[in-house]
Structures are given as structure tokens and as C-alpha cells.
Description:
four-stranded antiparallel sheet; alpha/beta; single chain; 2 domains
Amino acid sequence: MNTEMEKKNSAYAALNYVKEGDVVGLGTGTTVKFFIERLAEEIGQGLSVRCVATSKNTEHMAKSLGIQVFDNVSKIDVDVDGADEIDGNGNMIKGGGGALFREKIVAYNSRKVIIIADSTKLHPEGIGNFGIPVEVNPFLSQNTRYNLERLGGICKFRDEGNFYTDNGNLILDCHFGIISNPVHMEQNIKMIPGVVEVGIFTNLANTLLLGRESNIEVVNFNRKQ
Ligand code: 5RP
């Protein structure tokens, strides 16, 4: 399996969902990088779009390629982002790159969310084995960890507590195994004081472009808005 090729095929196919004049959400990660490079080429050939970035890394890359990036926009037409795991209903684990906070805000506020991913990301049996990245405020973060573990999992601070998000917060990588009810789990984790955002994304993906070595598989989900 050529994962790089799968990522490229998926990322390049996402360009078909971008139209002249769109406001585009730029996700974060190695797959999205291919999309941003190709988007910059299209802009160089005359396409006019404005963008919102889900992380400082993405913002830096986009700006270095001449893409206009804004912090406040009234609408986002299409968001293109990656995933760490996705199931057959579009439930996802995100946050492997630590950008889940802005990624969720951008996805929620986007009319259409296109997920680009190599074939290893699809988990029809259910999501969760990757772990659930949870962004937590540093204040009383050991207590927040304890409260998360009371839900039945094991949580470890990313990079032994040395990983800080763009928002100055920590990431707890929490392992609960396969999640039987992602919607409930997302809500239960979000309820814990100290949790800033949880890397379970439900009812946000419209379309998955699953990269294969020589083509892509398009999976549409029933997102209720
Ligand atoms: C970052 C993310 C990424 O979308 C996710 O980690 C996938 O990244 P990659 O395309 O590098 O596999 O959620 O917070």
C-alpha cells in the first residue's frame, strides 16, 4: 500500500468541491498539506478564494504559498480536513496533530465538510482504537485527567505534558477502546470542567474522499444541519 499516493489522490480530489469565490476551511495534517499545495496552484492560475486555517502550522504554510487567510469570516462554504479514524456513519477521531479545537469550530461553521484520508483511516468496525485526543486547560489538569479516567479509560498527557496546543492548552490522549456510542461519549467528555474540546467529531462530515492507490472512493453521509 502506498499511503502517500492515497493521501495525494484524496487531497487532489477535494479541489473539485471548491468553487470560485468560496470561503475555504483549511484543515491540518499531512493529507491537507497536499490539498493546500494544489489549492495554491489553482489560485496562481486565477481561482479566487478566501481561507480560514485550523492551526498556526496550516496558516503559516498557506500564507507562504500566497493564500489569503482570515480569522473572521461570515460563512465558510467548504472545509477540507483530514481524520485519524472515521467510521461508516462519518463519526471521526481527530486531533492527532493537536488542532482539534479550531478544527471543530471550522467544521461546525462550514456548509460542507469534506474529509480527505488514506484508506487506513476507515474503520467500519468503529472508532476509538487510535485513542481520543482531549484538549484540556492546564489549570487543575491532573483533576481533569482523573475525571476523564472515571469514564472508564486511561489518559496520558501528550509528550509527557510538554505538548501545548495553539491555544496554550494540553492534550490528554485517552484510551477507551472502540466507542460504542460516539455521540454520548462526545457529550460526556465535553461535560467535564477543564475540557476545552474533545476529538470525537459527530454529525460534521458530509463527504469522505477515501484515497486508494489509483483512485478514490466517495462516501456521503447524512449530516443533519
Ligand atoms: C489534526 C488532525 C488531522 O486531521 C489528523 O491527525 C489527520 O492527519 P494526517 O492527514 O496527517 O493523517 O486531526 O489535529
